[in-house]
Design brief:
The protein has helices spanning 2-8, 17-31, 35-56, 81-89, 91-96, 99-117, 119-129, 136-147, 151-168, 173-186, 197-209, 224-250, 273-297, 314-317, 319-323, 325-344, 350-362, 365-383, 386-400, 408-422, 426-443, 448-461, 472-480, 488-516; strands spanning 59-61, 72-74. It contains 24 helices and 2 strands.
């Protein structure tokens, strides 16, 4: 009990330099405006900055090989009659043409059906509740990683479930919640499946890459290989940190500070017979979808193979399939969700399917508002040539100091992790940083896919220690049900070991995978950009 009492004390005690640093980050983060307001300010600021740079005549020499020598790129002012006509005339097209918007909406239509039917919840419970007791920790972390295919489901279902499971096993419930949180949020960029975040980030990366190469395409599968291998690393590291660091530090659980309602293990509802039958039917649906994909993709003359690239290998000729991956995400979750729901009774007819789709889209209201302003900022950034100028100047600086080798990614990942402490949304952060760093690192020879993969490491590893992360408050609320005195500082201190070990192991894995072994981060994803 004494150990738990120590773990549950407010963070005001034993405040070392790192705790004070995190307090400062939290304070600075609270000073930031809402992400929507931030993008509105950035877009407005870009207009005035372009006017200043245009008046000063800022320019750089264009180093791209497909332009004549001596060509310059000049800052274009939007603070004039022509610029204002561009702004007002393209306000709508900037929004509807923003690549991440459509792909997320389409993918969420399918995910909404799977979530509404109860399939996603049943999958998580099936993985965790049926695991052998000595493998429960591994199952919790792994289920967390898989659940981030539909991110809010992991936070809302798995985290409190993990606490209840650990409590029922006589273990510290906060250790179970920490393990689940580490899987869901710390492993946000690791998965065996593609989720809605993949086409979202790929769309932003593509927009940024086209500042350098207007025809460049980034597929939703850009980081899939690296995501798969990362899933096993995250599961192993998260489990070991839970067992050997977090759980011993928390010590014996003292339930005197708990909400009495959480001490009842009735939350651990095992799968019913119908749910098990539903999962079996969903499994058959998965096989059906995979069979359909095989028919359309495996033969060289398949519908989703490029007829002009026959004989050039699977990856070279499968562009149509990779370009349609968002449609397959939609079909996968739609079919499996309906198959499960039909058996358990949650999906009786087309109206239930439509309700599932509608409920998923309803949750994206804030995202749509965010995208409207983010799209204007990205468009302005491109029109003014500020993206190219910043990228070329940054690339020249890296070359001048000799930092053009793989080591540049270590500093890039660290920078992404630090930025994430104050701007917790993965899409919002990437929409701000991608137009600068994707072209910059492309200019020194690295592909957008590898750059995106590195960004995702920095973003994921600090998700679990920043109060700016969207679900941080929810996790804290769940935790206080087990310990009324559990505060922000205690939560950060509990999750910090995960953040440190995830960062160290993930960076090592990245460098070994990409540069030592020379393996691609995803299907058709090159390591280097040839211009």
């Amino acid at each position: 009990m004494s150990e738990h009492s120590t773990a549950g004390k407010p963070a005001m005690e034993n405040r070392n330099w790192f705790t004070r640093f995190l307090d400062t980050v939290e304070w600075l983060g609270n000073l930031l405006p809402h992400p929507v307001t931030l993008f509105a300010l950035l877009a407005t600021g870009m207009v005035f900055l372009s006017g200043l740079f245009g008046w000063l005549g800022v320019s750089v020499t264009d180093p791209r090989p497909d332009v004549p020598d001596g060509t310059t790129i000049e800052a274009v002012s939007l603070l004039n009659a022509e610029g204002l006509r561009m702004i007002f005339g393209n306000l709508v097209s900037n929004f509807v043409g923003f690549a991440p918007l459509g792909v997320v909406l389409v993918a969420m239509l399918g995910v909404g059906v799977a979530e509404k039917s109860g399939l996603l919840s049943a999958m998580v419970r099936g993985i965790v509740l049926n695991a052998p007791k000595h493998l429960v920790t591994v199952a919790v972390v792994f289920a967390g990683v898989i659940s981030n295919t539909a991110s809010e489901m992991g936070y809302v279902v798995l985290v409190p479930l993990a606490g209840a499971i650990f409590l029922a096993l006589g273990r510290h419930p906060l250790a179970g919640m920490a393990a689940a949180f580490a899987g869901v949020s710390g492993g946000y960029s690791a998965n065996l499946l593609l989720g809605t975040i993949d086409p979202l980030l790929a769309g932003i990366t593509e927009e940024a890459a086209r500042l350098i190469d207007p025809d460049y395409e980034v597929y939703a599968t850009a980081n899939w290989y690296f995501m798969i291998i990362s899933t096993f690393m995250i599961t192993a590291v998260g489990s070991l940190v839970t067992i050997f660091i977090v759980e011993p530090k928390l010590g014996e659980y003292d339930d005197s500070r708990a909400d009495p309602t959480v001490l009842d293990d009735s939350q651990m509802t095992p799968l019913t017979g119908d749910e098990k039958k539903g999962l079996g039917m969903a499994g058959l649906a998965v096989l059906g979808v995979l069979a359909l994909i095989a028919i359309l993709v495996v033969p060289e003359t398949g519908v989703l193979r490029d007829p002009d690239a026959v004989g050039e290998g699977f990856l070279a000729s499968s562009g149509p399939f990779f370009r349609s991956i968002v449609a397959w995400i939609f079909i996968f979750f739609l079919v499996t969700g309906f198959a499960y729901g039909k058996v358990v009774g949650t999906m009786k007819n087309d109206r239930d399917v439509i309700d599932g789709m509608a409920s998923a889209i309803a949750t994206l209201g804030l995202y749509v508002v965010l995208v409207f302003f983010a799209a204007q900022f990205v468009a302005f950034f491109g029109w003014t040539n500020m993206g190219l100028i910043t990228a070329i100047a940054g690339a020249d600086f890296l070359q001048a100091i000799g930092l053009t080798g793989p080591l540049v990614f270590l500093f890039f990942i660290i920078m992404c992790g630090i930025v994430n402490l104050s701007l917790g949304s993965a899409s919002a952060q990437w929409a701000v940083t991608a137009p600068i760093f994707v072209p910059m690192l492309m200019m020194i020879g690295y592909s957008p896919e590898v750059i995106q993969g590195a960004y995702r490491i920095g973003d994921s590893t600090t998700n679990i220690i920043t109060p700016m992360m969207s679900y941080f408050g929810l996790i804290l609320a769940w935790a206080t049900r087990y310990d009324k005195k559990f505060g922000i500082g205690t939560l950060i201190a509990t999750m910090l070991p995960y953040s440190i070990f995830y960062f160290l192991c993930w960076v090592v894995l990245f460098f070994v995978w990409v540069f030592a072994l020379g393996l691609p981060v995803g299907p058709g994803s090159p390591t280097y950009y040839g211009g």
